[in-house]
Write a structure and sequence with these properties.
The complex is a heterodimer of chains A (about 290) and B (about 70). In chain A, about 75% of the residues lie in helices and about 0% in strands. Chain A is mainly alpha-helical. With about 70 residues, chain B is mainly α. The chains are: A mainly alpha (about 290), B mainly alpha (about 70). At the A-B interface, helix 5 of A face helix 2 of B.
Chain lengths: ~290, ~70
C-alpha cells in the first residue's frame, strides 16, 4: 500500500465510520473499484485497520471527553451503590447494557461473518439493503409522528416531543447494542442500525446519534486495543499507518460534529438514498469491470 | 426473591470468571478462531467483563436496607 492509498483509506474510514453508510462496505468496495492491488488478507492490513479504528475512537473520546468523565464517574458510583440516582449514572448503565451483547456477538461471530462476506459484490448488495433499512427506520418514525399528531408542527418541535438518550429503556439499549452485530456484514452500517434503533425506541434524531456514538466508543476502542500486539508482530510501515490513523481521527471528529448538527432537524433519508444509489452503481461497475 | 436473584447473579459471575480463566489458559477452545493459540485473551476479557457486569447486577438486585 502506498502512502497516498494509506491516507485515502484513513480518510475514508474516519469519514464513513460514523456516517450511516458502512465504513466496512466502503473499504471493501472502493479499493476494488479503483483496481488497487493491495490485498486485505495481507498480515499488515489488520494492524492498519486497528490503527484507523483507534484514530476514530480517539476522536470520539475527544468529542465527548466531558461526558465520558461524568459517565465513568457515574458508572462507579452506581455500581458500588447498587442504585441509579442521576442521568450520567443511568446513561453509564445503559451503555454497559448495550455494549455486552455487542461484545458477545463480536467475539464469537465477527471474524466468521466478515470472512464469509468479504466480497465487494456482497458489500455492494448489503449497501443497498442498508439504504432500505435507513428508509424503513424513517418510515416508522414518520408513522410514530403521525400517531402523536405531530404532522403540523415544525421539525424542531417534532424532535422535542421525543426522548433524550438517558430516558431509553434498558431492554431497548440491549436490543440496539445487539443490532451492532448486523454491521459485521460489510455494507450494513453500525451507526445506521444503532441510530435507527434509537429512533424506534423513541429518541430524538440527535440523541439517537449521540447514543450511537457513545455506544460505539468502548467497542471500537476495545477491538483496537486487543489487536495492538499485532502492530509489533508484523513489519508494518508505522509512520504511514500512524499518519493515516491521525487523518482517520480528524475525519471522524469532523463527521461526528457535522452529524450532531445535521440531526437537530435532519433525517436518515438522504443517507438511505445514497446507499441504494452507491450500492447499485457499485454492482454495475463491478459486474462490467469498468 | 430479590435476595435469590442476587445470589444467582453472584454464582453467574463466578462461572463467568472461571470460564474466562479457562479461555486465558487455553483450556477452553470453544468458538475460537485459532484453536492452537496458547491464550485466548479476547475471550478471557469478554468473560471478565461479563463477570463484573453480573456482580454489578447482583448489587442492584440485592435488598437495600435504606
Amino acid at each position: 500500500m502506498t502512502l497516498a492509498q494509506a491516507l485515502f483509506m484513513g480518510l475514508l474510514q474516519g469519514a464513513t465510520e460514523l456516517f450511516p453508510v458502512s465504513s466496512l462496505g466502503h473499504s471493501v468496495i472502493i479499493p476494488s473499484l479503483l483496481h488497487w492491488q493491495f490485498k486485505q488478507s495481507n498480515p499488515t492490513f489488520v494492524p492498519f485497520l486497528v490503527l484507523l479504528h483507534l484514530g476514530t475512537a480517539g476522536a470520539l473520546l475527544v468529542l465527548y471527553r466531558q461526558e465520558w468523565i461524568a459517565i465513568i464517574r457515574g458508572f462507579f458510583t452506581a455500581a458500588v451503590r447498587g442504585r441509579i440516582t442521576t442521568e450520567p449514572e443511568r446513561l453509564s448503565m445503559l451503555l454497559l447494557t448495550g455494549t455486552i451483547p455487542a461484545g458477545i456477538l463480536g467475539v464469537f461471530l465477527e471474524n466468521r461473518i466478515k470472512s464469509l462476506f468479504a466480497s465487494p459484490y456482497v458489500a455492494a448488495g448489503f449497501l443497498v439493503v442498508n439504504g432500505f433499512l435507513l428508509l424503513g427506520f424513517e418510515l416508522l418514525r414518520r408513522r410514530a409522528e403521525r400517531g402523536a399528531a405531530l404532522d403540523s408542527k415544525s421539525r424542531a418541535e417534532q424532535e422535542e416531543s421525543f426522548a433524550t438518550a438517558e430516558r431509553i429503556s434498558f431492554r431497548a439499549a440491549a436490543v440496539i447494542g445487539a443490532c451492532q452485530a448486523l454491521a459485521f456484514l460489510p455494507g450494513i452500517s453500525r451507526s445506521g442500525v444503532t441510530i435507527g434503533g434509537g429512533l424506534l425506541a423513541g429518541l430524538r434524531h440527535q440523541e439517537a446519534a449521540r447514543f450511537s456514538f457513545l455506544l460505539a466508543t468502548p467497542v471500537i476502542l476495545a477491538a483496537g486495543l486487543v489487536e495492538v500486539p499485532q502492530l509489533f508482530a508484523t513489519r508494518v510501515p508505522v509512520g504511514e499507518y500512524v499518519a493515516a490513523a491521525i487523518l482517520s481521527g480528524v475525519a471522524a471528529y469532523a463527521s461526528a460534529r457535522f452529524l450532531l448538527r445535521y440531526f437537530r432537524s435532519g433525517r436518515l433519508d438522504p443517507y438511505g438514498w445514497y446507499c441504494i444509489a452507491a450500492g447499485v452503481v457499485s454492482l454495475v461497475l463491478l459486474t462490467f469491470r469498468l | 426473591m430479590r435476595g435469590r436473584l442476587a445470589v444467582g447473579l453472584v454464582i453467574l459471575a463466578v462461572a463467568f470468571a472461571v470460564i474466562g480463566g479457562l479461555y486465558y489458559e487455553g483450556v477452553l477452545q470453544i468458538a475460537v478462531s485459532d484453536s492452537h493459540a496458547a491464550h485466548h485473551t479476547t475471550h478471557a476479557i469478554l468473560f471478565a467483563v461479563l463477570a463484573v457486569a453480573s456482580l454489578i447486577a447482583a448489587n442492584f438486585a440485592r435488598e437495600k436496607t435504606v
